[in-house]
Structures are given as C-alpha cells and as structure tokens.
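# nightly structure sweep
# worker-07 picked up a monomer target from the shared queue
# config: single-sequence mode, recycle default, output format = structure tokens
# input follows
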Amino acid sequence: MDQTFSHSPKNIYALDALYRISNILVAGMNQRQILSEVLDAMDSELGMKRGTVTLLSPDRTEIMIEVAHGLPLEHTRRVRYQVGEGITGRVIQSGKPFIVPQISKEPQFLNRFQRSSKIDEELSFICVPIAIGQDVLGTISVDRVYRADHPLDDDMRLLSIVASMIAHDVRSRQEEAHALQALEDENLRLRNELTDKFRPENIIGNSSAMRDVYAEIHQVAVSDTTVLIRGESGTGKELVAHAIHYTSPRAAGPFIKVNCAALNENLLESELFGHEKGAFTGAVQTRQGRLEGANGGTIFLDEIGDFSPIVQVKLLRVLQERQFERVGSNKTLETNARILVATNRDLEKAVEEGKFRQDLYYRINVFPVFLPPLRDRKNDILLLADHFVEKYAKKMDKVIRRISTPAINMMVAYHWPGNVRELENCIERAVLLSTDNVIHSHHLPPTLQTSDASDTIGTGSFRERVQLFERDIIVDALKRTNGNLTSAARDLGSTPRIITYKVKELNIDYRRYRRSKG
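# output follows
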C-alpha cells in the first residue's frame, strides 16, 4: 500500500517552513537578506540553530561565509575554509551531504565557531551542498541539540530541499553580478581607450601651428571655461573637443555631441533641452534633452553658427544662469555640463549682419582655439598620410610599405580645400587601389592629378601621364635596389640599357637613392 502524507505536527511545521521560505525567495531583497531570513525561518519553525550559508569564491579556491545565523558577525568574517577542509570543505568537494550526530566525537569537525559554550550541551551538525546539477555553489548547514531518538536523516532531506530552493537564486545573482562586473570592466576599458585615443598628443601633426593648438588644449582643459573651436570644415574640430574633455577632470563623465547643422529649429530645441509629452505632434512621451544627459560631463555643440535666433536666446540663458526648460514645460531645470562649441563660419561677420547675437558671441568666445587649414601645415601632410595608410591598410587587411615620392609631391603641392577629411578619403581610395604594397601617384584621385603637383610640365597630356607612371615605378625600383641600375632593371624584368635610357629621358637622379655605407 502506498504511503500517504502524515498530518503529524512535524510535517505540518516542515510545510509551513517551506512555504515561508518560498515567499522569502520571491520578496526581491538582496542575497544576504534573503539567506538570513531563510535561516531565521529554519530556526523559528524547525528548531535548527546556528544556520550557516557558505559560498565558493569566484575563483573557486576558497569557501567564504555568506550568512551565519545566531553567530557573531565579526567572527564569521574571519572564518575561511579551503575546498576539502573540514566537514564544509568535504561537502563542497564531494557534492554530498554529511551528518555529524555528535560534534564532540567527530575528529573532522573543526568547530571554528566555538560551539557548545556549555559543557553539557551536545550538538548535532548537518551540512548539505547548494548545487545545480553537478555544479556545487556552496553549502547550507545547521546545528541541532543532540537527541539520540531524533531522526537526523529527515532533517537532512528537508535541508536539501531548502538548498535546492535557494540554489537557482544564488546562481542567478552570481551571473547577474558577473555580467554587471563585465559591463563595468568593459566601460572602464572603453573609457581608457577613449582617453588614450583623444589625448592631444594623439592628434596627428607636428607643425608649429598644431603645437600651439596642443598648448591651448592643455591650458584650458583643467578648467570649466567655455571654448570656441574655430576652423574650416574637415580640420578636426571634434577631435579637439574630445581632447579637451578627456584631458579634463570631467573625463569620467559623459561626452555628448550635437550636430546643430543637421537639425531644424524645432528638432534642435527638443534635442538640446528635451520635451514634455504632448508638447508637439509626435511627442508621445517625455524626453530628456542632451543638456540633462551631459550633467557631470561635456556637451559639444558643433556648427553653432547655424543656430536660429530662438535657440540662441535659450543657449545664452544656459551659459549665463545654467538653467533651461524642456519644450512644453514651465519647470526650470539646471545643468552643470561644460559647454564646448565649434563653427566654420565667420561669426564676426554674422554679428555685423544681425544673424548672430552679439551677447552670445561674447559668451562663447571666452577661449577661442583656432585650427589651421591643412594647406597651412604642409609639414604635417606626410605624417597624416602615413597614419591613414596604416589605419586603412589594417582595415582592408593589406600590407602597404610606403608612399611613392611622386605621390608625396602631389599631396604636398595640392591645396586641400577639404582639409584633413579630404586627405583621409584620398588615402582610403589609394589603399583600396594599391596592388603592389606601394601608394603610387596614379592611385590618388583625379583632383590631385595636376601638372604642378606631379612634377610634369605641359597640360597633362597622355604622353606626360605615361611618363609620370614610368618615373614612379622606376624610382620605386631604384629605392628597393639602393640606386643600382642593373639590379633595378632585373627587378622590373627589363634590361640595364632600357632602364638607363629611361632614367636619362625622365631626368631621374639615380645616385640620390644610394645609401651610404659609412
């Protein structure tokens, strides 16, 4: 005949305890609070004294006390077990429960909590693993006042049920803590990368004009002064803004960029200041503005010269009082974000024409930083070109050993109306077209293919372009062969006579490519 559930007081108490523990596990408290209340329930409902929960350390080499009920907190913090050490370590190692009927007669019992303060009080000890499958996470153990007739196996089964109930909660919290730590580590890594990437020293350029820019960045970064970054389109104003932020005490805070030229007046106002639900058609919910999001950090307003008069007035108030309202709201908000602005427009002319407020101009022009156009920093062109070659060669999985001399001459002679951005685009194209590990002049865009830039004369006829190509590949071969005409001919699959003729025809000084031995 099947056994039926006994309605004895003992089983009723066990069910009540399990019901209370199940409610504790869904209460949404932190892990230590939950485990502490579980042990309290086992004490009050079942008479299991001095309950202890241990968990394996993240590296699984040490067993630590997570919660100890009825024992001094300062004592539990000092207690540590190794895997396999004592009863607790043995349960962790084996994944099997262990019962000690009388702790005074068990040699493996370490008694690190100094139980049995009374000589005549004998205790029983039960320890079961907290595990999911074969993966042991820790243990839960309890004491009982020893009674010869008490069925400890029943206590062990009940304790095992409790351990299985809390195992999934422990695992999920460990996974959540691990994921959170991974996010924090990744966030720190990305911030460190940004800090390294946007140091002023990492902006490419060694010309005197750029050295002045670096000095200004270091000078203004330590303060909260508003900075106006000026320069033509493509000169790298956003890089300077990044450098100021990541060199400042606000480096750990957010860096938020707003491209003002890409938004119309209404969208820009909402983007900067935020809006309330129903403020305008499409405002289906309240939205935080970029100024709020930049609290504790820096907001970079690119192309501020495109601001409408209404937005100019609101920005002036932010600069003066650090206050603003969301669109559709009367509630005044405050911001402590540092404000950096940039423009390629002639603001002085805009002020004269009434297109830009004079008071706003004076507010943003506290510390201007001027970025020179690329045509005024010719010495930096090769440095920048080498940097972009390395960048795009890595991106396209190519090996580019160098830029040919004619290609360098063309780049230096060109006036670069698009500045650094145009140079980067040209190098990306050249790396894509290169098939022999060298950037040649014919890999550069047609806009650079002028007679002055390519060291040719005349109007750039078909013959002149062919000669340019021949000169390019012969100079490359001479560089590889240390200016030796015979070796260069062999390298090109030609004869010394033909190469000597071409060198004279193209007026190439092969001796300049001979490296001295001294």
